[in-house]
Design brief:
Helix 6 packs across helix 7 (about 150-165), helix 6 (about 120-130) packs parallel to helix 10 (about 235-250) and helix 12 (about 305-310) packs across helix 13 (about 320-330). This protein has helices spanning about 25-35, 45-50, 65-70, 75-85, 90-95, 120-130, 150-165, 205-215, 230, 235-250, 265-275, 305-310, 320-330, and strands at about 5, 20-25, 75, 100, 110, 115, 135, 140-145, 170, 185, 200-205, 220, 225, 250-255, 255-260, 285-290, 295-300. It is built from 13 helices and 17 strands. The chain is elongated. Helices cover about 40% and strands about 20% of the residues. The protein has 3 domains: about 20-100, no CATH class; about 115-225, Endonuclease I-creI (Roll), CATH 3.10.28.10; about 240-330, Endonuclease I-creI (Roll), CATH 3.10.28.10. The chain has about 350 residues and is an alpha+beta fold.
Length: about 350
């Protein structure tokens, strides 16, 4: 299986045809002239019709292209694809001059830098979405919810690095797991977040579209999975993914070490395979029934695996990191007797 460590714009072009893109002004003017083979592309009727735009017979020009040249407006990505072909340009040249992408005229704008690196920060984003985050099934908006301030800040910092934007931040009334509670207030800055306060970060639909395009629909509403595209990533990405997922979903104590629960058995099997690939071995995935529903879990066991996890991956959660340190420094020999 060929490993991937970066994404170019041509890797996701089939999924973003309806998006609006903004290109560096000097470059887009040169691209238009080269594609139209004229100094005034907006006057070239054949060229305008070839790229699927409207030529105004009364003004003898395409108003959209004239406005693009004068004011550097955003254009549809599908139009950019046609300009690339007509100008015989490369995506590598275009992506170097790409400024921003958004889904619509008034929807959220992102500022990705291509090629997009599938590094530890990207792994962290994917791991948190598989954990306490989500990508809305209908609107593709990303949300991440947690009471640990450090995890909220980690997710925000990684998203800012990848997409160049800040989230909407909402404080939520604390409640039971999977029970909807009231929104209390909106915050302007992550510095205002208090520890042990339920907080949600929200990001525009274009972010969800991008991530699912890269990783093969790994999160659509409640349907989350470790896809083949995720499995094809390299070591640093997987370290970030495991750390984030375990920060969200792992329970750890001094008696039985790290334990991860999920409703989805296949998710845990694939996660366990990633740990094996990183040299961290664990018990097989097991099952018990809770309220007549199967619940799956596995444990990381033995001092050598605690140490490997501690040195290679670790936790952002300070509480979990302290417990792991205690396991590494003073391991206990035990045998799991009664699974819940």
């Amino acid at each position: 299986m060929k490993k991937i460590n970066k994404i170019h714009i041509n890797d996701i072009e089939k999924n973003i045809g309806g998006c609006l893109v903004k290109i560096e002004h000097t470059f887009i003017k040169k691209l238009l002239k080269k594609a139209s083979k004229s100094n005034n592309p907006y006057n070239n009727r054949k060229f305008i019709e070839d790229i699927g735009l409207t030529f105004n017979d009364s003004t003898k020009r395409c108003i959209g292209i004239a406005s693009l040249i004068k004011h550097n407006r955003a254009i549809e990505f599908s139009t950019l694809q046609k300009l690339k072909i007509l100008s015989n340009s490369s995506w590598l040249d275009i992506e170097k001059n790409l400024i921003s992408i958004r889904l619509g005229r008034h929807k959220g704008e992102i500022f990705p830098k291509f090629p997009i690196r599938l590094d530890k920060k990207m792994g962290s984003v994917v791991g948190h979405i598989l954990g306490d985050g989500s990508i809305d099934k209908r609107y593709l908006q990303i949300s991440y919810n947690n009471k640990d301030r450090d995890l909220i800040i980690e997710f925000r910092d990684c998203m800012r690095k990848i997409f160049g934007i800040e989230p909407r931040i909402w404080v939520q009334e604390s409640g039971k797991f999977k029970v909807k509670t009231k929104w209390i207030s909106r915050l302007e800055n992550v510095k205002d977040i208090q520890q042990d306060t339920q907080v949600s970060l929200f990001y525009p639909s274009i972010c969800g579209l991008f991530l699912n395009s890269i990783f093969g629909d790994f999160a659509i509403g409640a349907d989350k999975k470790i896809t083949d595209n995720i499995n094809r990533t390299q070591k640093e990405f997987k370290i970030g993914l495991v750390r984030a997922f375990f920060d969200d979903e792992c329970h750890i104590d001094k008696e039985r070490g790290p334990r991860v629960y999920q409703d989805d058995e296949l998710m845990l099997i694939r996660l366990k395979n990633i740990l094996d690939e990183l040299g961290i071995h664990s018990f097989p995935v097991r099952c018990y029934f809770r309220r007549n529903k199967p619940q799956y879990f596995f444990n990381i066991n033995q001092k050598k695996n605690y140490l490997r996890y501690y040195e290679l991956i670790g936790f952002t959660s300070k509480k979990k990191e302290r417990t792991l340190e205690a396991l590494v420094k003073k391991p206990r020999q035990y045998r799991l007797k009664n699974f819940p």
